Amino acid sequence: MALLNTVPDPEVPVISVVELGVVRDVDITPERVLVTMTPTYSGCPAMREMEADVKAVLLARGAPAVEVRTVLSPAWTTDWIGPEAREKLRRYGIAPPGKAESQGLVTLTRARSAVACPFCGSTDTVLQSEFGSTACKAIHQCRACGSPFDEFKPL
Amino acid sequence: MAEVINKAPDVPIAAPRKVPVANPLADYLQRLGDDRLILGHRVSEWCGHGPILEEDIAMANIALDLIGHASSLLALAGEVEGEGRSDDTLAYFRDAVHFRNALLVEQPNGDFAMTMMRQFLFDTYSVLLWDQLSRCGHEGLAAIATKSLKEDKYHLRHSSEWVVRLGDGTEESHQRAQHALDELWRFTGELFDRDEVDAAVEAQGIVVDHEALRALWTTMVRDVLQRATLTMPTSTAVRRGGRTGFHTEHLGHLLATMQSVARAHPGASW
Asked: Would the N or C end of chain A have less CB density within 10 A of its end CB?
């Protein structure tokens, strides 16, 4: 697990696949290493990259064989991203995810809580688009400092 | 000038046509998977053609999510079927008559209002269906439902906001949104049908309350349409057939595009 903590998320390289919460378990026997992973978004193209990177790192460090098992349950949530990784995201210019919505269906008129600008900290920001450069991000703009920025969407 | 996407007379078709089903669970999972595969492909047709950059990105993202859901569902369908067919085999090497998607999702994109209205009508259904299936007695399907529900909530928020924006927008956007709604309405009834496949999978723990689903869907759709100042159609005519492989002409054209590379180079990888 410590070794896998050196494998960066291919699209947000400032945090590792372990910090992202994608690596759920590592089981080591003399014959093989079994890594249990869970996808972030169902259609995230980076998942295959992550699998390949995880395999490459373990094989390079002498694992005789690496098997990756994908599990969907429990479903991945941004709540698994710890405080340290959130701070790394913020310093990288990505607003860390807020608390994921609990169960319940969509309330269309629900006011979204303001996302703090990762550059100046102001909460005077406006959502530009729910969908951003990768599946996990939304695009905002800060009215205080004028910077556009990504938000890691709570899921 | 808004497109007329289906010139068929607005007559009710009494009952779905029946075809023999060897494995109801595999068939049921294909219905779920095919809805998302076909809609995902339709939405992906906007890639590079979105009205604004953010919307282009949004639709590409939504298409990816839907195709991801389809991949999980069709992989499970192949497993249940037990004939060695993968998600890719099911997606690329079946003909229209073997597709089980609802007619709604294969309808052409038309203008932006038509695309968003189709998405809104389907997203509302999908969110409510996943909510029920996330508690169903089939472990693998419940896991896919729980995962997909989270993502589809984002899609629904996006599509319903667009429906409000278009309906309560300019005179032209209102007229186009109303036209889209009127054109697509007849395809919504099929989503709530319960046939012998549904009955058969209930024995395996997959129990969906179709009436509750329809009632909640109607409530949610009415709420958004009211905000959008659009008129909910009163027609009760239903066009159906997709669940048993009787499709509109549009599916064949879609498949010809979607499957061409896989069929020209079977087994290719890159």
From this structure: N
Return the closest-CA partner of residue A97 out of A86, A113, A108.
Answer: A86
CA dist., res. A121 & res. B233, Å (int): 48
| Sole residue written with tokens 């609802």 | B102
Q: Copy the structure tokens of residue A37.
A: 């992973």
Q: For residue B31, which of B85, B70, B82 has the smallest C-alpha distance?
A: B70
Handedness of CA A13, A16, A20, A22 (dihedral sign): positive
State how far residue A68 is from chain B, nearest Cα, in angstroms: 16
Would you call B162 helix, strand, or coil by DSSP? helix
Instruction: Quote the ipTM score.
Output: 0.86
Q: What is the model's pTM?
A: 0.91
- The residue of A42, A78, A101 whose CB has the most chain B CBs within 10 angstroms, and thus the best one to mutate to test that interface, is A42
Q: Give me the helices (H) in B45-170, please.
A: 53-81, 87-92, 103-106, 112-133, 139-167
- CB pair distance less than 8 Å for A75 and B160: no
pLDDT digits (tens, 9 = 90+) for A49-76: 999 999 999 999 999 999 999 999 999 9
- Measured in angstroms, the CA of A131 and the nearest CA of chain B are apart by 5
Instruction: Determine the Cα–Cα distance for residues B67 and B63; give it in Å rounded to an integer.
Output: 6
Give the C-alpha separation, A29 to A33, whole Å: 6
* Residue A111 contacts B where some CB pair is shorter than 8 Å: no
pLDDT tens-place string over residues A17-37: 999 999 999 999 999 999 999
Closest residue of chain A to B153, computed from CA coordinates: A106
Q: Out of B58, B65, B227, name the one closest to residue A129 (CB).
A: B58
The residue with tokens 């996990």 is A136
Nearest residue of chain B to residue A70 (CA atoms)? B72
- State how far residue A75 is from chain B, nearest Cα, in angstroms: 5
